[in-house]
Design brief:
Number of strands: 0
Shape: elongated
Number of helices: 4
Distance between the termini: 105 Å
Largest sheet: none
Length: 182
């Protein structure tokens, strides 16, 4: 038997579809204007930052550390003022400063991958030359199979010759028997 749970008085359906609120066109226009203004401010700020970058190059290292502390901090960094001597400040590099032609250090994973490929190539060369244990086992297995096939073929040939000889003997005996009757 199916029991239904009594609902609160005044409610007909579920929670969906209730209290829909729509944004008015005026509010949408106001939001779009605010967004455009914010983008303009960011572009102007980016232009100012470019000029500040040129000025920073001329300043000394002590002034650079003061500007780093004024940057926006994440989380609770702004609340707690602690200098971490182990923290290395991220410095942005320009494209002109990057060394593309210099010798590049490989990561551990890249080195391991290259070593693995070289080891695989060495193993395949030795395997094809028949110097590995697996290659020796494969060659021995092939030799055994060849011998078994040769023996089976020889046995078949002997049986075929024996049948022919028996058939010839039977034919000769039959021929003699027919001669005797005449």
């Amino acid at each position: 038997m199916h029991r239904t749970i009594p609902r609160e008085p005044g409610r007909k359906g579920g929670h969906k579809g209730r209290m829909r609120t729509y944004t008015s066109p005026e509010e949408i226009d106001a939001q779009m204007k605010a967004e455009k203004e914010r983008k303009k401010e960011e572009e102007e700020g980016a232009a100012l930052n470019d000029s500040q970058v040129e000025e920073k190059a001329a300043k000394s290292d002590s002034e650079d550390s003061e500007e780093d502390s004024s940057q926006k901090r994440k989380g609770v960094e702004g609340l707690i003022d602690i200098e971490n001597p182990n923290r290395v400040a991220q410095k942005t590099k320009k494209v002109t400063e990057l060394e593309l032609e210099g010798p590049r250090q490989l990561s551990r994973r890249e080195r391991e991958e290259i070593e693995k490929q070289k080891a695989k190539e060495r193993y395949m060369k030795m395997h094809l030359a028949g110097k590995t244990d697996q290659a020796k086992a494969d060659l021995a297995r092939l030799a055994i199979i060849k011998k078994q096939r040769e023996d089976a073929a020889r046995k078949k040939e002997e049986e075929r010759k024996a049948k022919e000889a028996a058939a010839a003997a039977a034919a000769a005996a039959k021929g003699l028997h027919t001669l005797c009757l005449k």
